[in-house]
Structure formats: structure tokens, C-alpha cells
Amino acid sequence: MKRIVCILAVFLILSAVLPCGVAQAKSYDVKKYDVSIEVMASGDAKVVEKITYDFDGDFNGVYRNIDLDRTDGVGDLKVYVEEGEVLRDFSPGWGDGKNQYERSREGDLMVLKVYEKTSSREKTFIYTYTLKNVAERYNDVGIFNRKVIDRNWEVPLRDISIEVRIPEGASKDQLKVFAHGPLEGYSEIVDERTFSFYVGEVMPGTFVETLAVFPPDLIPDAGRVSNEDRLPAILENEQRLAEEANRLREEARARIAREERLRNLRQRLLPVFLTVLLGGVASLIGMNIKYGRDLKPRFDGDYYRDLPGDYTPPVMTYLLTKGNVKSDDVMATLMDLVRKKQLRITPVEVQERGSIFSRTTTVEKYKIEKVEGANPEGLSRHEVFFMEWFIDKLGRGEGLILDDLKDKVKGRSAAFEFQNNYGAFKELVKMEGSRQDFLTSNTMPGSGAFLLVALGLLAGGILSVVYLGAWGFGVVAIILAVLYFMNMLFLRLKSKLTRYGVEQTAMWKAFKRFLLHFSNMDKAEIPSIVIWEHYLV
């Protein structure tokens, strides 16, 4: 009852705790990211970011880091949240007030902390700001080069669209566009003022860099001016990057094609995999049938009306248990030695004192002692040891009163000594049993074929994982091979009955059936009463 109460208490505690833990779990990702950038004649760039978050759980707001590298800072910062067709704006401040955001500088990053309580829904945040002095003017070109998506995101970004617009005054053939980042993105020149970039997904730690090239006179007031030609270096670098990107794309295509070929090959080999595994299981079962079973006995009678062998009861136990000895064999040995006239059990009267106010009473107990003049010649070693153990050691040569046995082994040292003697008795029985030729080692003739099957399963499993990526088949095959090896070792160490042991075992079982069923038999079939003393042992 106490155990049931404890289990119920633990269950109730877990029931109360676990839901809280699950409720506290939360996550988010960015499902859409739109960026619009307008490059001004001054070299500044007006940026509008629309970031749609998908929240799962309760959040107090979001962070947004703006990279200030290669700029003179950020101006005109505004933060909004979309609410249908309306934009709700935020004001700068400190604390966790509603419709507020905090702004700080950490190295080349402007860190924004926007307070907006949200629970399991989508929400779009809009950031507008001006990157000061970000465009660069050279002798031959003007450029807008920026990592619009930096490496600092900790969640995947999806559906990323970037649009860069430049001042009027250029023709489309004067423009060039390049993009760096994920291989699956693309960029294009939409018209004489617009560059477009798109990426399906950006993983954490990955960036998207835009490079828009246009005539330098479109940004006459730019502050970042260099009196050199820049286009040749840009083209050379982009050629190198394009070649590297093409190489990576080819490797990716080759990898995908190889994976597709392997997937098709695995599908075609599926019947082979199943056949191999089923064959391995069938072979494992067959090995156990062949090497795990004993010989079939030639004796097939229902009953055996005599003792099958002329050996002691513990040796019979050794035979029927394939090498073990039980505690019952101690009493059986005692009874057998009485039958053999080596020991005798006699009733004795013992005076026992009661409590303080009780009288002394006479109690009849039973004493084991040696029969005077008995010849121990012909006894087994374990029988001789038994008499030394019980009569000479426990009975100190005078015999042992059975009721005194518990008192004699109460002490720690006496209990250890008794256990050691019991162990020695069992070892002597096993030595006697081994001389009877009941058991033999399992040599497993012809098991080399099964060993080859196990090695084949192991090699096939490893090769299929390494070269085919067939993890399901490979792992199962390796496990099956390990079971194969373990089973072979178990069978190899297992003792088997010899032909003599098989016949003796069959006759002992038939003799047991005879003892169980003799009361239902015709009296004429029952052996003489003289041998029943031997049966009892």
C-alpha cells in the first residue's frame, strides 16, 4: 500500500510540474524579410525593413542589430508594428514601457531592444533609418556594397527580398549587380534605377551581401571618395567568386545526384536487404536448433520402474541440471547414507529449561550419528566429506542433533564455515558427476559456415552504411551480427549431454512419471516393496 501511495505521489508531482515546463517553452522564426534601400546623391541610403516574425509562446519583444560597418552611423530611426492597414509607432526610451524601444551601441552594431508583448502569433516589425555616407564613389564607378543580412541572426530567415534603388541618370547597360551568400539566391537588374535580390532561406551564421555598380556621377555629393579606378578589381574579384560559386554549385549538384542515385539503388536493393535480414534470423534460429539441442534419446518408454543409474542423488541432480547441485541434495545424501547403513537417525530425549517460572520439560529430538563398525569403503568422496562435515565437525565426533544445527551456524564465522563446507560438498559432487561421462563440451562441428554468415552480416552492414547510406539495414545487420557472435560464444561454452547422459536423463524422467502415476497402476505392475526405501531417497 505504501508503495502505491509513493507512486501516486510522484505521478501527481510530475503532472503538476511537467505542464509548466511545456508551457514555458517558446520559439520564433522569421518567415518573411523585405528590405527596400534607396541610395541618395549624397551617398546616404534610406532603408525600410519589414520583418515578419512567427512567435510560438509568450514574448516581451524583439532585438534588432544594425551593422554600422563602413558607414558614418544611423539617422532618422523609426520603429513600427503593423496592425492591419495601420502602423503603430514606437518611441525611444528606457525600461519595458509599451510602444518603446531601447537603443545602444556595441562596437560596430546598433542594438535595438523593442518592447512588444506577443503571444503565439505572427507580427510584422518595420524599421526605417538612414545609413549615413554608405555609398562609395571612385573614378570609374559608384558602388553600394553592404551585407544587408548579417551573420548575427540566431534563427533561420525565409523569403528574403531586397531591392536597391539608385538616383536617376544611368542606362541599364551601365549597371552591374553582384550578390554573395547562399548559392541558391539570385540577383538581377530590373530597370535603370532598380536592382533586385532574392534568397529563399538564410541559415544562422550566413550573410547576404549586395553589390550594386553604377556611374559615379549619380552620387556627386558622396563623402566616401577614392581617386582610383575600381571596376577592374571588382570584375576580377567577382570572376573569382563566380568560379568558386560555380564549383560549389557543381559539387552540390553532384552530391544531390549521387544521393539520388543511392536512394534509387537502396529502393531497388530493398528486397535484397529484407531477404538478407530474414535469412540471417533464420540462420540464427537454425544454429540454435543444431547446436543448442541435445541428442534425441533412443529410450521412448512412458515409465521406467527401476533406478536408471547406480549413483548418488546429488550426482543425479548434476545430470538433470547439466552441472548444478541443489540444497535438497544435502538432505538426500543424509537419507541415502542412512539407507546404506553408514549413518543412523535415533530419537533422543533432551531436557529443556523453560522460562523462569516454567518447569524443565523433556523433548524428543533426533540425532545423526555414525553406525559403529560401518565400512565406508565404496562411498563417493562427497559422501565421506558429508559425514566428516556433519558428524566430525558440526557434531564434534559425537553426532549431531538436527534441531541444534541452526544454533551452531548462528555466528558469522560459523555461518561462513558452513557455507564453505557446502561449497566444497558441491564441488566434490561435480567432480563425481564429471567422471560419469554425462556431459561433454559443445564442439559445434561445421560452425564455420555460421561464422561466415555473421562476418558477412557485419561487413554488409558496415559497407551499406558507409557506401550506400542504408542506415536502417546497416544498423539492423550489425546488431544481428553481434547477436550472432554472442550466441555462438554462448553455445560454445554450453555443456551438452553425451549419448549416455541423454539416455540416463530420459530414463530418469520416465522414472519420475512412474512415481507420480504409480497409484493409478495395476498393483501387479508395482515393484517389490523392498526397493521403495531406495526410491524414497
Walk me through this protein's architecture.
It is built from eleven helices and 21 strands. It has 537 residues and is of the alpha+beta class. The strands form four sheets. Strands 3-7-6-5-4-8-2-1-11-14-13 form an eleven-stranded mixed β-sheet, with no helix packed on it.
Count of DSSP H/I helices: 11
Radius of gyration: 46 Å
Termini distance? 44 Å
Q: By helix and strand content, what is the structural category?
A: alpha+beta
Fraction of residues in β-strands: 25-35%
**Which blocks of ≥5 consecutive residues have pLDDT under 50?**
1-23
Largest sheet geometry? 11 strands, mixed
Count all strands and give the number: 21
User: Biggest sheet, strands in spatial order?
Assistant: 3-7-6-5-4-8-2-1-11-14-13
Instruction: Give the % helix.
Output: 40-55%
Q: Outline, from the CA principal axes? A: elongated
Average pLDDT rating: 85
